[in-house]
Amino acid sequence: MHSGRQLLSCLVMLLLAGCAALEPQLPTSAGWQAHSQQLALLQQWTANGKLAVRSADAAESASLEWRQHDQDTHLQLSGPLGVGATTIYSDGQQLDIHQGNEHRTLDISTPDAVVLNTGWDLPLLALTYWLKGMPSPHAKVQKLELDPQTELLQILQQDDWEVHYEQYGQFEQFTLPTRLRIQRGATRARIIISHWQTSPG
Question: Which domains are seen in the chain, by residue range?
């Protein structure tokens, strides 16, 4: 159970990616502009795949189902390595975590509330944008590199998290990431998405 808690802590750190007041500096190429505008319209989606998280203390993995409906996030984790069944829900203001018989609710509307309750100084859900292959509009872009041939996002850095996009796939009219790596400090995460559903189901 202890290792499951470590994975959950790492995951919540990824979910609550940080915020800055400055506007992101985005590329101006026509290909990237058209792609990012299309992704911005994708507000309802489901991604199925696997998550592996490594920290200084543990290495864990789980299957995941991420369902996004506008600002509402539903994340289901399941796996054999101490995770059990974990459900995470967020409306952008609160984070509800159900793991086995345990239930926790965190107020994430302000950075101070998160720090006081968890010690994680990471206030917003940037991963909702990163999974689609676009920067969070709420955080300063520290680094952004596009593939010169496809004009798709290749490397992104925000709030000191660095995201590497290794592979994309075509799902209906959208080109979306299927393999990505996320890291900051001693925390490393690898996400493999086997299927995207881009229309309401």
Answer: 2-197 (2.50.20.10)
